[in-house]
Design a protein that fits this description.
Largest sheet: 10 strands, antiparallel, barrel
Strand content: 35-45%
Structural class: alpha+beta
Radius of gyration: 27 Å
Number of helices: 16
């Protein structure tokens, strides 16, 4: 039995690739559409399908009365690869379902995906049809990877997703339009265990991409953070970032985002032709290699702190095939009758294995890496016996399986010396305040220098980071940017006391005359809360900062590490 598939946007960057991919699936009558009839027919004639599948092209403008033309063509399945979906309505899926056709799209627009089920589920179920939004790199592939990595896990702490296409990959107008729609505007991010906002294409960092080296990526708008954070009860962070291989393109988009954020420019649509033209030059020093990374950290089925990663490497210019693979996997699942009727985002609908199977014709490889993280940094410095003797709130705070996010209140004193004010600004230390909300996030990481902990302290919106590790002599070391401080730590049943024993700036040791003085203490109060009291002074300057307060695990006090089993993503319909 031949199934008619109507491919909307079939001559676009992704549509062309999907058309060639579907031509290798038997039993299809593939209709490739474009607003330009000649382009559609030319592409159809250039593709040779396998026996049992036919291909034809026709002009079709889905923006003008799609219900009439879709009903006339009577497809079994409508695949929408047109884009951009930012600001789009549901006219196409409504027309497809009303005509008795299943529908799958490659949308990545957050609001479009979030409203999809509410707008279409009743109609889809009434007709016994399937409608899937986001059968693309996000959210279908990204969430399938998360589900595969976290099967049986007890807790998820952080979830980081990144995509970095090869610089020579073909980019269409729809992709540029989607990027510019949110550049410099607030977008959702799951941070400190709650939905917050960050700036699109401005919240950036350099990360290691397997097979590609280090690349800069910036926050982009997807549905992942808004959906996965609450549905998987992620304790700390869900972030989705993307990057461009060309530094000129990356910093160019980030500059436009900065200008928009500060009100210097408004709409960016008029720049699309110029940006596409500029790529003829900016892409020249780049490669045809791109990739995707999904990294998850949390407690595995045995309660061990684990970091699990899934990565994809696309070579020889095959990267633009990746966003089309979930749509092809969805078509096969429909052919097999595996998907249940209803309209919903393509989250947890397809398995990672089903999507990876579609990579076979291309220079695309995937791999998984697993790392079990060892003891906490403080436990390594103290030794097992001294650590076990600490009060319970301190062992929970410093244990690797302990909660990663702690909330509380703090009061801050700040020195008035001009140099003290300058240093506080450079480090990000907060100004003087009383009874301020404070959140401390602990992220346990591993890298070339060994294991470490990244501490992020958020005092009422004023944030600063430090990196805690153990040096070669087993001594605690804390780094603030270019400054590294050696710390002597004394433990007792009452708590911890820490003092600065040495310091380096850019690797150069500071003389003892210039060493800052730290009076730092951690203890438990009579309510079972973690208490901190940190006073830092500088030679010839005096007080730098003095902050003290209490912390409790986000979600309530703990006497034992949280061991509630994670509600997994569905493994597939």
């Amino acid at each position: 039995m031949t199934r008619r598939v109507l491919l909307i946007g079939g001559t676009g960057v992704f549509g062309r690739r999907l058309a060639r991919h579907l031509a290798a699936i038997p039993g299809l009558d593939l209709l490739i559409t474009s607003r330009d009839d000649r382009k559609a027919r030319a592409l159809a004639s250039a593709i040779t399908p396998i026996p049992g599948t036919t291909i034809s092209g026709l002009g079709f403008d889905h923006r003008r009365e799609p219900s009439r033309d879709i009903a006339r063509l009577a497809p079994w399945l409508v695949i929408d690869a047109s884009g951009p979906f930012q600001g789009a309505g549901y006219e196409v899926p409504l027309a497809a379902l009303s005509a008795g056709a299943h529908v799958v799209d490659l949308a990545d627009a957050r609001e479009y995906i979030l409203g999809y089920g509410a707008a279409l589920d009743g109609l889809a179920r009434e007709h016994g049809l399937v409608a899937l939004a986001g059968a693309s790199s996000t959210p279908a592939l990204s969430t399938a990877a998360v589900a595969a990595l976290t099967t049986g896990w007890q807790r998820i702490d952080t979830l980081d997703i990144a995509i970095t296409p090869g610089g020579r990959s073909e980019v269409g107008e729809a992709v540029i339009a989607a990027i510019l729609s949110y550049a410099g505007r607030p977008i959702p991010i799951w941070r400190e265990g709650a939905l917050q906002a960050t700036d699109g294409w401005l919240d950036s960092r350099r990360i290691a991409m397997p097979g590609l080296g280090r690349r800069r990526v910036a926050a982009v708008e997807t549905v992942d953070a808004q959906w996965l954070g609450p549905s998987l009860n992620v304790q700390s962070r869900v972030a989705f970032r993307a990057g461009l291989e060309s530094p000129v393109e990356q910093w160019g988009i980030m500059s436009l985002a900065w200008l928009r954020r500060h009100g210097a420019i408004g709409r960016l649509d008029a720049l699309i032709p110029a940006l596409l033209a500029a790529r003829r030059i900016t892409r020249l020093p780049t490669s045809d290699r791109g990739g995707m990374l999904v990294a998850v950290r949390g407690l595995d089925a045995e309660g061990r702190l684990r970091r699990s990663c899934w990565s994809l490497l696309a070579e020889h210019g095959d990267g633009p095939h990746v966003p089309t693979l979930p749509a092809a996997a969805a078509l096969r699942a429909l052919l097999n009758g595996r998907l249940t009727p209803g309209a919903r985002p393509a989250i947890g609908v397809l398995t990672l294995a089903e999507i990876e199977a579609e990579t076979a014709p291309y220079a695309i490889t995937t791999r998984r890496e697993e790392t079990v993280l060892g003891q906490s940094i403080v436990r390594q410095a103290l030794g097992e016996a001294a650590f076990a003797a600490l009060p319970a709130p301190l062992t929970a705070f410093h244990a690797p399986e302990g909660p990663p996010v702690w909330h509380g209140r703090a009061s801050i004193e700040a020195g008035s010396h001009p140099l003290a004010r300058l240093l506080r600004w450079l480090i990000g230390l907060p100004s003087a305040a009383r009874d301020l909300p404070v959140t401390v996030t602990i992220e346990r990481v591993t890298g070339a220098e060994g294991e470490a902990e990244v501490w992020t302290r958020n005092f009422g919106g004023s944030c600063f980071n430090s990196r805690l590790s153990v040096d070669g002599r087993g001594r605690l070391e804390e780094a603030f940017g270019p400054m590294r401080f050696g710390l002597d730590v004394a433990a007792s049943a009452d708590g911890l006391a820490l003092a600065v024993s040495g310091a380096r700036c850019l690797g150069i040791p500071l003389p003892r005359l210039l060493l800052p003085r730290a009076e730092a203490r951690e203890h438990a109060d009579d309510q079972g809360r973690f208490r901190f009291d940190i006073r830092l002074t500088l030679p010839f300057v005096g007080l730098l900062t003095h902050y003290r307060g209490w912390l409790a695990p986000a979600g309530g006090a703990l006497t034992q590490p949280e061991m509630a089993e994670v509600s997994p993503l569905p493994a597939g319909d």
